[in-house]
């Protein structure tokens, strides 16, 4: 990036407001130029960007030079949407958490199952109405929570409306007891060998001897 660094030194960036992730605005310093990038072997749209309070520039290199540099910088702030999507997969769609097969094959199958889960959630009545009216859909986590609540309400309703609610309630409680896992917490040192954590008789004698020597 030697050419780009020299370009930075020769020019002063312009201060402007950049919309971050489609929401708040932040003060940034930017400058852009279409430069020949030796590592790529061709001309690229190079954008130097630094946020308020930063001393060093970060570089954005775009292959499509028909965009405005402000639009490229704005789209750059949306890159974390990929991380949010992956977090949704891990937390709510079973990817990586419920995987029974490790390695590349396991990850590939996990992604496929997660995608199927996402597509099935598109059929949820509330989600379907939102998308049909061209509104922003609900995230997977929100839909999963709604489905869990709907399932709980349906179960409670079936217990209440049954001919023998007491028996059905006991059966439900027993099923929940067998379903909920008992997990050991490594953070609380469960199942760890912590040693005896007490003084031994021989070392007590040594300690008394050292005290006598110190007193003398």
From TrEMBL:
Annotated ranges, domain Transposase IS4-like: 42-102
Region (Disordered): 183-203
GO biological process: DNA transposition
Name this polypeptide is given: Transposase IS4-like domain-containing protein
MF terms (GO), sorted A to Z: DNA binding; transposase activity
InterPro entries referenced in this protein's UniProt entry, alphabetically: RNaseH-like_sf, Transposase_11
Residues in the signal sequence: none
Top-level division of the source organism's lineage: Bacteria
